[in-house]
Specification:
Order of helices and strands: HHHH
Structural class: mainly alpha
Number of strands: 0
Number of helices: 4
Helix content: over 70%
Largest sheet: none
Radius of gyration: 17 Å
Strand content: under 5%
Length: 83
């Protein structure tokens, strides 16, 4: 079952996802700096921010995989089997 945030990400276009990813990365960088300098009230915000970034990256990668040709997918499967 998809969460509300997941469905929001799926509804966004590719450019919006990339912009969202850049904004989240910048916010995480600032949050880490604030935490190192003076501490933030809730350090678990760092974890949730990293997870949000991972959700956006996952959606971007899923779209890349959906656009791959069958030959590219077959080649990718062979690479994964070798691991």
């Amino acid at each position: 079952m998809a969460t509300k945030r997941t469905t929001e990400l799926q509804a966004m276009d590719q450019d919006a996802l990339v912009n969202e990813l850049n904004e989240l990365n910048e916010e995480l960088k600032n949050m880490k700096f604030d935490h190192a300098v003076r501490g933030i009230q809730n350090p678990l915000q760092l974890r949730s921010m990293r997870r949000e970034i991972a959700k956006v990256q996952t959606e971007i990668r899923a779209r890349e995989m959906a656009q791959m040709s069958p030959e590219q997918l077959a080649k990718r499967s062979k690479i994964r089997e070798g691991r």
